[in-house]
Amino acid sequence: MAHTLVDSHCHIDFPEFSQRIDEVLLGMAQAGVSHALCVSVNMEDFPQVLGLAVRYPNLFASVGVHPDHEDGIEPDAAMLVAASDHPRIVAIGETGLDYYRRPERKQIQQARFAAHIHAARHVGKPLIVHTRSAAADTLALMKSEGAREALGVMHCFTETWAVAQEALDMGFYISFSGIVTFRNAADLRDVARRVPFDRLLVETDSPYLAPVPHRGKTNEPAFVANVANCVAEARGVPLDDVAQQTTENFFRLFDSAREHA
After folding, report:
1. Which of 14, 78, 45 lies closest to 220, judged by CA?
2. What integer pLDDT is reported at residue 1 of this predicted model?
3. Which DSSP helix (H) or strand (E) runs through 242?
């Protein structure tokens, strides 16, 4: 019997899915995707994220504010700690640094990231880290603020093997999205080949970044099977091995999810 997969990062609370959650969950089941982690990107919509995880037993949730988010509630560590006090909340994030769109907001992003790290350390739940055009500062802040004590995952990884190694040295996991399937992503597939098997995760980041052969479509958790298949090909192992290992890795990292799986 084939092992099931877990989508370690998706956003199915987004408007693209508001009228078709049951259809999305059915698609997951048909694709052999047993669970998914619905990731918060702001405090305003966090109640909907948590609501999905409460309503559906195979969904989990996180709490956090994306580095790109502006003009909303700015949580301090205490607010994040309080919001995470629910059994369906298994992680803090997504958090991190993104200098691609608004490099002038570096200081705001860094303070926000530090608050998330402090919250994760306090509650003992892992971090979901986003980094774009900011790898050096992301790693430096993780080190200076003690992210090693919380652990976590570098989500939607698109960086070099050197960046992966630094994150791995801090105990972090590396997660690959549909980007790894793109034609021009040979270097990223090489990173996916080299990441230790017990630190590897797969995700969709849906509704974005649909993998081959679904490019141009709205991404959804069922498509994590395509990501896993690409990673399996890069590593020269059966898809079933990637499914089994990444599922084990998910429940090891997000250990509070194991009690409710």
Report:
1. 14
2. 38
3. helix 239-253
Q: What is the DSSP letter of 218?
A: P
User: What span, in angstroms and rounded, lies between the C-alpha atoms of 238 and 217?
Assistant: 27
Segments of the chain scoring below 50 in pLDDT: 1
Question: Angle at which helices 106-123 and 135-144 pack, to 10 degrees?
Answer: 40
Question: Measured on CA atoms in the order 16, 22, 23, 26, is the torsion positive or negative?
Answer: positive
Residue pLDDT, tens place only, 29-57: 999 999 999 999 999 999 999 999 999 99
CA neighbor of 232 nearest in space, from 74, 5, 23: 5
Q: Which residues touch 49 (CB under 8 Å, ≥6 apart)?
A: 13, 38, 39, 40, 61, 62, 63
Q: How many helices (H) and strands (E) does the chain have?
A: 10, 8
Closest to 225 measured CA to CA, from 43, 116, 217, 233: 233
161-169 and 135-144 helices, crossing angle to 10°: 10
Q: What amino acid occupies position 73?
A: I
At position 96, the amino acid (one-letter code) is G
Which amino acid is located at 142 in the chain? M
Tell me what pLDDT residue 2 has: 62
In angstroms and rounded to an integer, the radius of gyration of the C-alpha atoms of the chain is 17
Under 8 Å between Cβ of 202 and 176: yes
CA distance 198 to 200: 6
CA angle 9, 256, 218 (to 5 degrees): 15
Contact by Cβ (8 Å): 115, 150: no
Looking up tokens 């580095």 gives 67
Note the pLDDT of residue 101. Answer: 83
